[in-house]
Amino acid sequence: MKLPSPLLYGRLIKRYKRFLADIELENGTMVTAHCANPGSMMGLMDQGSGVWLSQNDNPKRKLKYSWELVEINGSLVGINTGFANRIVEEALRKGAITELAGYDILRREVAYGENSRIDFLLQNQNRETSCYVEVKSVTLSRQPGIAEFPDSVTARGAKHLVELGNMARQGHKAVMLYLVQRSDTTCFRLAGDIDPAYKSAFDVAQALGVTALCYTCHISPTQISLAHALEMQIGENTLS
User: Fold this and answer.
1) How many domains does the chain have?
2) pTM, whole model, 2 decimals?
3) Pair 222, 128 in one domain
4) C-alpha–C-alpha distance, residues 108 and 33, integer Å
């Protein structure tokens, strides 16, 4: 997925009210940028961190700038959770996710369950086979090399697991896909100490037949693309 070009470089001053961030550009200009990330962004908000912004001159937009990337210990992290589905869709259409290859039809944001929408519904032409895929963007890493989810309590995320479990119970393929928008990790685990209810919902969903996948990304100031699968340490759910 190509990023808006060119991105502007700056230094983070602070993030506040969840969706706002004050940033100093290289020329010394202070700007307020939209932060498209509803999570806690734990470990990604140190003052002075290098960040990359996109610019949109549409006069109807309240904020001209959007925060897209942050540099952490020499590696880039994609903080825009809205990018996750775009990255995954691109990979699905290319057949880059081997576990989800072989479907003829890809539909996005399809209503299902109890007032929910699935990120991707994959089907064959005869529609006898359906695969429900939910995507979560992962940015948390509290120990070197280990990606974790979630970074804050997410009742909505737990609800998605319940819905997937119901689909699996009905005989459909149901997949929880964690997309790590950082390239400095080698394995993934659930942050059960941050949200025990989410971990419990995951355990129930997995017992019902929901498949969990985790992929990491290649990230640069010009594009973010799917890289490769990460080892999943589902039993390791707290910091050691």
Assistant:
1) 2
2) 0.94
3) yes
4) 28
